[in-house]
């Protein structure tokens, strides 16, 4: 991705979260379901390296660091403002030595260039693909950044097929205000990319198809 699209995306995200970042964690706990289930499923090996793509306020990284005290955590986000909040939250939690966050683009990143880490044992993406227009580009990037035997964990909005139509319509209208769009093609695209790269996939639909939870294991 060229510098101009990266800067455009960063500016767009900064505009959305300029003020939202101050209430993001408080407000999002009521509708970003499945995040803690995803974190419980990470189960990194001893001394593992764990990356979050689109780390936002650092909420997930901090919770994961508490769950897995032997692991080392990394995160990046395209929004500089969200990173400022993440850095403050990480410092407040006392995890500056175990969590490193930097600016980065999920559609075009190098683990070595960002963190000096060649590959990760675990990578997770929480409610970020639905905010990235070229989201398909993220999947091969993330899988390539895994060690053999490592796993990619994804949780995000699904199609809400098991929920009332009025609920789905209201949710979609509200999400659109924040440039969020559920990715109906995620399962098919994830399975396609995983097959190309020799990976296995498990895919679950949670809470009446409110959210989906996927795990890709790299052989």
From TrEMBL:
Upper classification of the organism: Bacteria, Pseudomonadati, Pseudomonadota, Alphaproteobacteria, Hyphomicrobiales
Keywords in alphabetical order: Methyltransferase, Transferase
GO MF terms, alphabetically ordered: methyltransferase activity
Domain named Methyltransferase: residues: 48-173
Protein name: Type 11 methyltransferase
Swiss-Prot/TrEMBL GO biological process terms: methylation
Keyword Transferase: yes
InterPro entries linked: Methyltranfer_dom (IPR025714), SAM-dependent_MTases_sf (IPR029063)
